[in-house]
Amino acid sequence: MAAPGPVPLRLRALEELGRASLHALAALGLGAHLLVDSLLWLLLGSRRGQTVRPASVFSEMVQIGVRAIPIASLLAGTLGVMLAIQGIYQLRRFGAEEQVVIGVAFGMVREFAPLITGILVAGRSGSALAARLATMTISQEVDALRVMGINPVRFLVAPSLFAMLLVLPALVVWSDLVSLFAAGLYVGGELGMTLQAFFVQTLDLLTPDDVMHGVWKSVIFAVLVTLIGIVDGSAVTGGAEGVGRATTNSVVHGISAIVLTDMLFAFATTR
Amino acid sequence: MTRTPDRDADRSAPVVEVHDLVAHYGRREILHGVSFSVQRGEIMVIMGGSGSGKSTLLRHLLGLERPSAGSIRILGQEITRMGDLELYALSRRFGVAFQGGALFSSMTVGENVMLPLREHTRLDRETMKIMMRLKLEVVNLAGFEELMPSELSGGMVKRAAFARAIIMDPVILFCDEPSAGLDPVVSSALDDLILRLRDALGMTIVVVTHELESAFRIADRITVLDGGEILAVGRVAEVRESPNPRIQNLLQRRFEEEAIDPDAYLARLTGEEARRS
């Protein structure tokens, strides 16, 4: 069907914007639906004869959490040292290098440990989830589940979501510890402060609320990463190229969502 | 396993009944009012070329898509307005062998075949394993249970998919393009398997295919689908000898060529169609 005439560029841009907004809205709706549906299956699955299997939750936990410990430790430790370096550099202007503990403790626990762990998990597990969902959709495995009478949300989404909710906060607490430890070692070398003194000061400064600030954020990140991975993965079209696109989308969307939410959360709870 | 109540009920009632089925993808109408039925214990082949709507029809029969209009009754139950849970319950009584097998790549062949048992029954693991090996024997894949799907050949993947499809002893078996992409020897072995399942287990089998030879070999009856319409439903001989020219075209693999207007053809090639006055 040939268009009656060239569409003005402005109109086309508007149309494109409208279409993109509709897509985004539909994706948000699907995400919300999946979240509610997964929670329902977790709670009521066994009554409907469709239990969410502990074994599949456990294997997801190993995949998302345990296997991520080395890289999470490396990144958190590096960030801790980085924050210490920059902190000492800034505070030297006031001759207050000793105060670096404040910056490192609050900065890591409230902000950077959850952020870097969230980004890591989005890149590592959110993308894996999207790739798996996309491949399974293309090879009709999702259809196969449905015609076998197995609800795909219960079988694929709920275990990942549950595992992510359990594991991501734990990873964040671990990252807190590792980053403080690494920063402590560095500060010790630089300022002659013992590790013990560093930790005593840190524990004096931090309240449970500060730790929970990071942990609650990570709970939100867990939901975001899982749902974005699933929504992007199941939106796959085309073959192998489509899987690649879906995977890339999930990483970009996941990291953007994490950074944005992080700021909003801090804005809403910290001022 | 629970006995399904209708097995003992009226055995002459059709197992699948489709009435005036209309289906759309977006705004495009794919099926324009399709009606046919499948009797108990027969092999019904739904035959058509690509774009005929046969895959769409199958997806509707399986409850994967909802039609725009019309009715689909499977084992006497209307599935077009069924809730998800009811549909899951019903789908335990039919098996599906997908075109590409759709085996779960993260599980071994044996785990794939056992999955429906694991999800829907409370049998102990040993019993499940025995049933799984039994079905692998039926499809001539004994001894392959520990392999991953990626380690199987194309024909073996399809046979494993058959084993998974029949693990719950379904009343109906749906097969999507069983012989597509296979060499003639393997494909005729699959045809034999389908015939054996009907004869030995009394299954009702619905096969969707574009392969004429395979269709004529296994079918009790054939439904010919073309352009979203049913051209004929009948026994193999009836379809073969049908006077309908569209059916004869399909059987002889002739394309319906459009009359070519040289000017229009040239315009299409140069992309000047829109500009012509």
- Summarize the amount of helix of chain A as a percent range: over 70%
Taken in chain order, the helices and strands of chain A follow as: HHHHHHHHH
Q: What shape does the CA trace of chain A take?
A: globular
Structural class of chain A: mainly alpha
User: Which residues of chain B sit in consecutive blocks of at least 5 with pLDDT less than 50?
Assistant: 1-8
Radius of gyration of chain B: 21 Å
Keywords:
heterodimer; A: 271 residues; mainly alpha; 0% strand; globular; B: 277 residues; alpha/beta; Rossmann fold; 6-stranded mixed sheet; 4-stranded antiparallel sheet; 10 helices; 36% helix; disordered N terminus
Write up what this structure looks like.
The complex is a heterodimer of chains A (271) and B (277). Chain A has 271 residues and is mainly alpha-helical. Chain A has one domain (51-270). In chain A, 83% of the residues lie in helices and 0% in strands. In chain A, helix 6 crosses helix 7 and helix 8 (208-234) runs antiparallel to helix 9. Chain A is globular and about 65 Å long. Chain B is an alpha/beta fold and 277 residues long. Chain B has a single domain, classed as 3-Layer(aba) Sandwich (Rossmann fold). Chain B is built from ten helices and ten strands. Chain B has a six-stranded mixed beta sheet with strand order 6-7-8-3-9-10, sandwiched between helices. Chain B has a four-stranded antiparallel beta sheet with strand order 2-1-4-5, covered by helices on one side. In chain B, helix 3 (109-120) packs across helix 4 and helix 4 crosses helix 5 (154-165). The longest helix of chain B has 18 residues, at 184-201. Chain B starts with 15 loop residues before the first strand and ends in a 7-residue tail after the last helix.
List the helices and strands and how they pair.
The complex is a heterodimer of chains A (271) and B (277).
Chain A: H1 9-44, H2 54-64, H3 69-91, H4 100-138, H5 141-147, H6 152-191, H7 195-205, H8 208-234, H9 240-270
Helix pairs in contact in A: 1-6, 1-8, 2-6, 3-4, 3-6, 4-6, 4-7, 4-8, 4-9, 6-7, 6-8, 8-9
Chain B: E1 16-25, E2 28-38, E3 43-47, H1 54-61, E4 69-74, E5 77-78, H2 84-91, E6 94-97, H3 109-120, H4 125-138, H5 154-165, E7 172-176, H6 184-201, E8 204-209, H7 212-218, E9 221-226, E10 229-235, H8 236-240, H9 245-251, H10 262-270
Parallel strand pairs in B: 3-8, 3-9, 6-7, 7-8
Antiparallel strand pairs in B: 1-2, 1-4, 4-5, 9-10
Helix pairs in contact in B: 3-4, 3-5, 4-5
